[in-house]
Amino acid sequence: WTEYGVALALADYAITLTLTQLPQIAVVSITVRGQELAYRDAQTFTARDVLLSSNEDVIGTVPATLYFLNEEGALAPEERALDLYEGDTQTSAVVRALEAGPEDRALQPVQPEGFQVKSTWLEEDVCYVNLSSTQLESLPEDADLRLTLEALARSLCSLDTVDEVRFLVDGDFAEEYGGVSIGDPYIAPAA
Hints:
The structure is a single chain. The protein is α+β, with helices and mostly antiparallel strands. The protein has helices spanning 3-19, 47-51, 90-100, 145-157, and strands at 28-29, 44-45, 58-69, 75-85, 117-123, 126-131, 164-169, 172-173, 176-177, 180-181, 186-187. Strands 5, 6, 7, 8 and 11 form a 5-stranded mixed sheet that branches. The protein has a two-stranded antiparallel ribbon with strand order 1-2. Strand 3 (58-69) and strand 4 form a beta hairpin. The longest helix is centred in the first third of the chain and has 17 residues, at 3-19. The relative contact order is 0.12.
């Protein structure tokens, strides 16, 4: 790295850490005059990326199929090997990767700006996903939460350890979230 490269990385990290302190910001994309910088390894940053960027911190990887939007606005799979860090779970790695967005430039993020999962945990083969009711107010009006939640559930079910996803709102079971029915569990399709 040149001195300029280090300074640019530090600037990226400072901006990312500052902005992600706001609860409605999970991912930061840094552009110049609206254009991505071709010489960057990454175009989007999360606080976790900044704080745990050393490969020495990676304790393992897990294969996953993440779902993002294709050009037609339908869900499309992207195969990934996700890094696991000390204290990480496979489900939190999937959530973090979805927040960071696709690596394939032909795909678009499925999560609306401001959407963030509060927590996930696994009990036997059921993954519980806890969502926040307060973030609903800050989501864009045109946000397609049905597609967002389906992509999240499908991505989590791609893990060998997850057969079913149950959504909660503020830690409690709920029938709907932002107008989307979440009362029934999402069951992984038979292989």
